[in-house]
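Here is the promised in-class demo. Please do not try to memorize the tokens; focus on the logic of going from shape to residues.
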């Protein structure tokens, strides 16, 4: 093969690999039909299921962009009301392009480990849809910002009903107890409260609590699964 042909082939292959990488990155925000519990929005955050026990799942999430805001309060409910309103204004046009942005799921709240009587900074985030992952509109509210969350592996536990401070606390305690019993390494200074439903949804609600792993996931008494996109 001539040198020029080799160069052309290499350029083609490099371009193809780059194209596939872009597709893979974008595909992590995908069609909601690929998750049975994410049915109220057209796009949802997708993950690879690593392993599963009767107490929790270990999942891998690729790096994606969120729009986020912080709010200080004693309780998650009070912080969430103000933060949700701010983020909802962003997706309904309070951005420099004046664009309306589709709602996605889940909505996550980063909750620091705190005493009941202490105030804390809660961070709420809306997942940006696939079409805005590369170049999201800039917020006009200086309390709202675009957040690049790195790839992460989490331990997750699901529960129904309403995502209240008490429900979140109880499920976070349940998950942390299960993880401590198998000596799993995870970040204990915060966790995520994760919701998949509109505030107007009355039944069949799906919530989760996540702890971020600090090491390879521990899944005793379960089979480690092959990485399977859109699990």
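The designed amino acids, position by position:
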């Amino acid at each position: 093969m001539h040198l020029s042909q080799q160069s052309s082939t290499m350029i083609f292959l490099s371009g193809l690999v780059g194209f596939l990488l872009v597709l893979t990155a974008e595909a992590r925000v995908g069609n909601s039909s690929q998750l049975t519990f994410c049915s109220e929005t057209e796009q949802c955050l997708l993950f690879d299921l690593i392993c599963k026990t009767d107490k929790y799942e270990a999942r891998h999430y690729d790096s994606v962009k969120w729009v986020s805001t912080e709010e200080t309060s004693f309780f998650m409910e009070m912080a969430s009301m103000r933060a949700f309103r701010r983020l909802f204004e962003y997706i309904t046009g309070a951005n420099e392009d004046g664009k309306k942005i589709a709602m996605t799921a889940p909505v996550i709240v980063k909750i620091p480990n705190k005493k009941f009587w202490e105030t804390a900074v809660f961070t709420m985030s809306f997942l940006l849809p696939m079409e805005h992952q590369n170049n999201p509109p800039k917020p006009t509210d200086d309390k709202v910002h675009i957040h690049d969350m790195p790839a992460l592996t989490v331990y997750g536990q699901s529960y129904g009903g309403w995502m209240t401070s008490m429900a979140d606390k109880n499920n976070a305690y349940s998950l942390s107890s299960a993880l401590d019993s198998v000596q799993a390494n995870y970040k204990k200074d915060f966790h995520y409260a994760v919701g998949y439903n509109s505030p107007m949804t009355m039944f069949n609600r799906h919530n989760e609590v996540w702890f971020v792993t600090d090491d390879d996931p521990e899944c005793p008494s379960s089979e480690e699964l092959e990485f399977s996109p859109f699990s």
